[in-house]
Each structure stands twice: as C-alpha cells, then as structure tokens.
Amino acid sequence: xxxxxxxxxxxLLALPLLYALFYGMHVxxxxxxxxxxxxxxxxxxxxxxxxxxxxxYTYSYAVSQxxxxxxxxxxxxxxxxxxxxxxxxxxxxxxxxxxEHFLSRKFVFASPGxxxxxxxxVVTILLVVSLFxxxxxxxxxxxxxxxxxxxxxxRVTDLTATNGEVSNPIDFALRNVIIFxxxxxxxxxxxxxxxxxxxxxxxxxxxxxxxxxxxxxxxxVFVTPEVHRWHHTRDVPEGRGYSVNYGVEFIFWxxxxxxxxxxxxxxxxxxxxxxxxxxxxPDEKNxxxxxxxxxxxxxxxxxxKRPELAQH
Length: 312
Fold this sequence. Notes:
Low-confidence stretches: 308-312
Oligomer: single chain
Strand content: under 5%
Radius of gyration: 22 Å
Shape: globular
Structural class: mainly alpha
Strand order of the largest sheet: 1-2
C-alpha cells in the first residue's frame, strides 16, 4: 500500500480509534491515584493528542493561532478547573434547598434504583444531555444576551486543540455544566454519570481538532471536525439563519430538527474556507475582556498621564 493511501486510511480511522481509546482509558482510570493528584488528566492528554494530530495531518485552510496562545491557556485553566467547581457550589444548593424550603417539595425525584436499570439510565443521560445541549447551543445563537456571551467563541479564526474552551465562563457553564448538575440532583446513578460525562466530552473536544482527518460515516452520528467547521464558518450558508450544526457531541439532533449541513463533492465533505465571526469581528486575545465585557464590567485602565505643570 502506498504512503498516500496509508495517510488517507489513517485520517479516516483516527477519530473512531481515538474515541474508543480515550473512553476506555477514562473508564479504567476511575478510582486510581492519578485522578487525585492530577484532576482532568485525561483532558490534558486528549489536548496533546489533538495537537499531535494537527502536526501529522496539516489542514489546507489552517490559520496560525500562536498569537492567542496565552489567552487559550487561561481559558482552558478557568473552564476546566474553576468554572464547574464555582457553578456547582452555587447551583447545587439552590437546586436542593430552594424548592424544599420555599416550595415545600424536593427537587430530587427519586433514588438511583427508581430511575430504571443501569443501562437505561446511561442511555437516558446521553439523550437528555445531548438534547439539552443542542437547544441551549441553538439559543446561544438566537437570544441576544446569550449570543453576546457566546460570540467570543466564534471569533476564533481556526478550530484548534487549544481554543475549544475559549468561552465566557457563564456561556461555558450554561452549555456544559448545568445539565450534569441537574441530573445528579435528580438522582441518576453516579456511576452512570461517570461513564457518560467523558463520552460526551471526548467527542466535543475532538470537534475542535484542526487536523485534516475524515469523519466518514461518523459525520452522521457525532460532531466531528468536518461537521463543526461549518458551525464556525464565517459565511453562514444561505437560508440557514444564524448557523448550522448546533449539536455538541451528537449530530443526529441536527438531522432531526433540520439544522444539519455538510455539502459533498465527489463523495468527499467540502470544507468552508474561512472560520470566524459571522459579522467579521476580529478574534479577541484579551481574556479579561471575554470575561467581563458581556456583563458590562470591562473598563480598561486609562493611560497614566503626568499632570501638566502649571504655567506661571
């Protein structure tokens, strides 16, 4: 087999093999010491793996993101290690205590055993999470305040391993944290949640891979890089409203609700030439502005000016 064919085969097999590898790795590591001394170690390893793929399979429309690398690093630290903890500390007490003390009823509906067999809970969590995230993501494109928060994520000029988490923490929490907290409080089996959460995150993280890897049939099941690039296209396809392909981990909700878009030419997926904000706004490298500007709290410090000496 020629080197060209081997390269093509590798680009086609990369996604399914890496999906399976990282999911199996996460499941087998549950309860091990590595989880204690390096939380989210699997997300870091996944990030480095995607960076390696980006070097092996260069994308023809790639745009350098080095000038915003410091912003990307800050965004990853905040949204991977801080946002979920802060939101959980605020939201979970509200979900548990507010209904009980002010409405005289509990928000928790059942114990894990009352919500059905374990396999049923896993399937239910996957469907509920993916459906919630689809509609939340869609609203983040149509409701002005939510778009103000979310729009910074769409100002990136290419999809890369490092900018998948570039997002205002409120925007990130609405799409990626709230639903898991709700399901935990409702009473789903914690083990079922531990098995399903990484599965949804793995596919979502790979959607920002800048490598020229092919989705193939996976383009009709998961949010692959080929599918997600059209969501981030600077030129929204005509007649498609605000955007296309709103799914976060699964794409079948887009197929069901008519928002799927992936043009084909000679049996191959056609990719958009330009990634970026639909109104042409430049990428924002100042993380503090991403954090505060949507809330009206960003006030850049004025340049220090030496007062003029009084004239005599």
